[in-house]
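[Meeting: bench + compute handoff]

Bench side (C.D.) handed over the final construct sequence. Compute side (W.E.) agreed to return the predicted structure before the next meeting so the bench team could plan truncations. Sequence as handed over:
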Amino acid sequence: MGKYSHNGGLQHTGKNSLAKWEQIPIIAPMEQLIAEVEAYCAAAGTSPQRVLRAAIGASWGQWDRWKAGTSSPTMIIADRLRQWMADHPPTMGREDAA
């Protein structure tokens, strides 16, 4: 209905326009989870498959399905995975951690 201005003066119209959200950087939850797991694995010197097995008892192909977008975890599973990574910092169990 009314006009509003944001993002350098661009004009957007319409009562239900979602254009006002253009300025907010959004990372999809699945992309964020994958990035977190990859960062953890890089720091821990292990593979995502091993982390998923240890954290949630996932099958060996689960990580590949998540990365391919053919499967995704529930929020409960994602929370459990994040909690496991928090409970097992990358330096735990590594011989070179001193």
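W.E. noted at the follow-up: The mean pLDDT is 80. C.D. will use this when planning the next construct.
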